UniProtKB/TrEMBL annotation:
GO biological process: cell division
Compartments where found: Cell membrane
Record-given protein name: Cell division ATP-binding protein FtsE
Similarity field: Belongs to the ABC transporter superfamily.
Gene Ontology molecular function: ATP binding; ATP hydrolysis activity; transmembrane transporter activity
Native species: Bacillus aquiflavi
Length: 228
């Protein structure tokens, strides 16, 4: 599903964020990406949906070689990748329903299909009753659940979650994890960058640790391994 071969990312200011990464992630895996702040986790995540482009090396996601992908084809790549952000990135002037439907309207999906899919994902995250509300009327946990619903409405093969519980209280964080677990159980590959030690140590999955832009640990059912 995801493969990196000798990947480097050097920014114009001279900082090398990713320093020779080789990794393979299979279909249906749930993988935690951990490491100290500034280790390169965010760059690692962003390269997978071409928010950042590798300086050198090969990145393959869902059989698409991102190293050779033209900028005009990036939206096509992202139709098969769901992204969940720490700060939600919901459009404040659109309702919950409209925020989720937007991803389908962009690809000119039929209105009946849009309605079915949006209501189905809202039911999955338990917020069907808030479809007509604006993001400002929701709690942080509800906003994150809507962000997840939006990320999966296209039935992506991969969901990339960048600190999805970072701004949430512990109880809400467990609720978010339950949703991600259910999505994964249905066959979707999930990559989750996180600093949440308790979640990683409780809900065991593969753990990839990044330090100084390099993979320093790759454990099939690992623990968090850091004090922060």
């Amino acid at each position: 599903m995801i493969e990196m071969q000798d990947v480097y990312k050097k920014y114009p200011n001279g900082v090398t964020a990713i320093n020779g990464i080789n990794i393979k992630i299979e279909k249906g895996e749930f993988v935690y990406i951990v490491g100290p702040s500034g280790a390169g986790k965010s760059t690692f995540i962003k390269m997978m949906y071409r928010e950042e482009k590798a300086t050198s090396g090969t990145i393959i996601v869902n059989d698409i070689n991102l190293s050779k992908l033209k900028s005009s084809k990036v939206p096509l790549l992202r139709r098969n990748i769901g992204v969940v952000f720490q700060d939600f990135k919901l459009l404040p002037t659109l309702t919950v329903y409209e925020n989720i439907a937007f991803a389908l309207e962009v690809i000119e999906e039929h209105p009946d299909v849009i309605e079915d899919r949006v209501m189905n994902v809202l039911e999955l995250v338990g917020l069907k009753h808030k479809a007509k509300m604006l993001p400002t009327e929701l709690s942080g946990g509800e906003e994150q659940r809507i962000s997840i619903a939006r990320s999966i409405v296209n039935s992506p093969k991969v969901v990339i979650a960048d600190e999805p519980t970072g701004n949430l209280d512990p109880e809400t964080s467990w609720g978010i994890m339950n949703i991600l677990e259910e999505i994964n159980a249905n066959g979707t590959t999930i990559l989750m960058a996180t600093h949440n030690k308790e979640i990683v140590n409780t809900i065991r999955h593969r753990v990839i640790a990044i330090e100084g832009g390099k993979i320093v640990r790759d454990d099939e059912r690992g623990d968090y391994g850091y004090e922060d």
